Amino acid sequence: MIKENASKILSELPKGIELVAAAKGRTSAEIQEAVSAGIKIIGENYIQEAQNAFDAIGNTVKWHFIGHLQRNKVKKAVKVFDMIETVDSFKIAHEIDRQCGLIHKTMYILIEINSGREAQKFGVMPEEALKLIKELSKLKNINIMGLMTMGPMMEDAQEARPYFKETKSIFENLRKHNIENVKMQYLSMGMSNSYKVAIEEGANMVRIGTAIFGER
Ligand SMILES: *Cc1c(COP(=O)(O)O)cnc(C)c1O
To answer: 143 CB under 6 A from ligand 1?
Structure first.
């Protein structure tokens, strides 16, 4: 089923939308099946899981980190990942920059926006995004490529719409600022139950797990 699911979603996505297959908890064989259907980007939440999958599958696909990154895991993360979608503090960005410097790599990153302003969630508050990005733009070994948001968990995807809308407006506003070394190219939002709404609101990167791999 994984192959069929992935093919169907790939064929239905509008042009220009990047699909990240969110693979937490899946085996390398399951991920390989998605890859055989044409999946080009794998999203991982946990470093060890990502390392195992990467060892099995390698760099025929791109690897995106979509979990919460801890400082002591950055050294491993920068070796595996092509993009880290969840940067939300100077501290973590600085460590990514430092570790990338040591291995002569430039890391693509997205800034995670806490669009629901939820105290227990990760991500930078919407009103603090500009300040953070200006600071991070000076780091030599990272390239800021856009924004990512989760939004609050909603039964009904329509209820997520305001959070996607707000993130898109932050994205456009940052684009207008034209900050040196900052590209507002990718807007990563929407999951299995919400990606269609997210695309309507301007997402050009969606992260889909369940609809590809089945229930966890
Ligand atoms: C698991 C996960 C997804 C995918 O969620 P599904 O509901 O399984 O599609 C997307 N983004 C992040 C950050 C995730 O952890």
So the answer is: no
User: What's the whole-model pTM score?
Assistant: 0.98
Question: What are the tens digits of pLDDT across the range 176-216?
Answer: 999 999 999 999 999 999 999 999 999 999 999 999 999 98
Identify residue 139 by its one-letter amino acid code.
L
Q: Looking at the chain, how many residues does it have? A: 216
> If you measure from the C-alpha of residue 42 to the centroid of ligand 1, how many angstroms do you get, rounded to a whole number?
11
pLDDT in tens, 56-73: 999 999 999 999 999 999
Say yes or no: CB of residue 198 within 6 Å of ligand 1. Answer: no
Q: Is 158 exposed, middle or buried (0-12, 13-18, 19+ CB in 10 A)?
A: exposed
